[in-house]
Fold this protein.
Amino acid sequence: MTKRPRFGLYALVILSVVVSFLPIIWLVLTSLKTTEGIYAWPPQYLPDPFTLKNYINIFTNSPELLLYVLNSFIVALGCTVVALSFGGMAGYALSRLGMRRAGVLMVFILAVSMFPPVSLLPSLFQTFLNLGLLNTYTGLIIAHTGLFLPFTVWMLASYFATLPPEIEEAARMDGMGFFRIFWSIVIPLSWPGFVATGLIVFIFSWNEFPLALVLMTQNAMRTAPVGISLYPGEYAFPWETISTATVIAIVPVLIITAIFQKQIVGGLTAGAGK
Amino acid sequence: MISMISPLDRRRHLTGLAFITPTMLVIIAILVYPILQSIVLSFGQSSIDGSGPYQFVGLKHYAALAGNDRFWNSLWVTLTFTAISIPLELAMGIGLAVLMNEHFRFKGIARLAVLFPWALPTALNTLMWRWMYNTDYGLFNAAALQSGLVDRPINWLGDETLAMMSMVVVAVWKTSSFMALIILAGLQSIPRDLYEAGRMDGMTRWQEFREITLPLLKGPILVALIVRSMDALRTFELPFNLTDGGPVTATESLSLYAYKVIFDFIEFNYGAAIVVVQFLVIFAMSLLYILTLRNKD
């Protein structure tokens, strides 16, 4: 086998990495500059002087930005737990309990997942207003669960379908009920599927914008993407605060993605391939 | 014929029903019912909280839409945005996937770099780009002015054509990675011996790509294309955060216009008509999606 030239390959790889990271790097650099440094001419590429003042200021002057991150965390976690519980049960019913018309139901679930979120807004806003669910964690958790359940069901159903049926048959011979089999055999065997699905649902919910914008109208209840986007500046967008808050809001996602990149990529490609 | 239902089958059936009920209730409440209610709203006049009487007005709102230039503009913006960004994303996605399929050192870091733009919230990605596009203090103008490429700052988001292009760039940056991941999974499933056979026949790299790789990638490419097109057709937070639809309405997508009609102008029924039209456009796309998947199996 002939060896192909590698320089071109490495140049392209480095270029892709730099382009992918550029906005994030520029954001982090901005957050480490003084206000004068951000608006200086000639432009400052590296922070000079380097400062952590913007981070300290967020804790002292704009704690609502931290509240947004906390709200996002509560909603995303709640949505992930509910979606995995409901979606796991539904996926098991559809792939393993010999349901009639399981195929039709799967296609129905796929079809409704394609509704544009904005088309749900007039009705959801009215309903949530009347039920007192606007500006509640419960409300947004239910809404996000609805949005991401179709994905969860598809992912978990296809994971369950890969388990060997003999184990469940043996358990049934021993007189175990269906619920016990699901709880004490299927779930422990399927945790990689639950982890991959849960991580992606968590990221989806953390990132969701239109429903979070409309269903959380009080400043104190906003999630991070919405709260930071609507953060008011006195006369101009306060980029030193915005860049710092954005860094704080994306760190959880960056960490999750970095640690679990294999599971996330595996889950994403499996989900899209179905 | 008498069907024999054993107690076991009966129990299995009941368990199945019990297991699927919570999911179905949530999906109906959050996805199905709101769509149906939007359709009802679009044919009538009612109060915001739905407490007042509902008055049926027939096609009044749809007739008004037909004569509404801003609506047609938003439909045009959405279709243009989709038509420009999807082919670019596909080209970048295939390129990235082919690249990531090679063997090289530090592959983990490279894969992470490709994954990050996808994993971060679009709304915040958009803010990062808006900051780089900033006319007076942004990175792009700083670099362009200092290097002497231009002698006046470029108004990236203030010119109609340029603003659309700037928006497309953000979309391509953000979602080529998603395309790349799906295509990469397809690439990795292509048997190695096909390439060895090709090499024996003296194929060049380009011929290998055109005659072996591309035909076998048709399935994953189609899926990626359709999923992404549907996303592009409902794009919302990208124009919301980048330009707020401006300058004037040059980047106002259908979702953004519908949102403004509903929540800024507080015209629920008229807004409902817009989202129903948008729903129909996307529904046509999803039918295409499902038919394609059916044919694949």
User: Anything to note?
Assistant: The CA atoms of residues 95 and 158 of chain A lie 7 Å apart. The radius of gyration of chain A is 23 Å. Chain A touches chain B through 96 residues (CB under 8 Å). Residues 63-96 of chain A form the longest helix (34 residues).
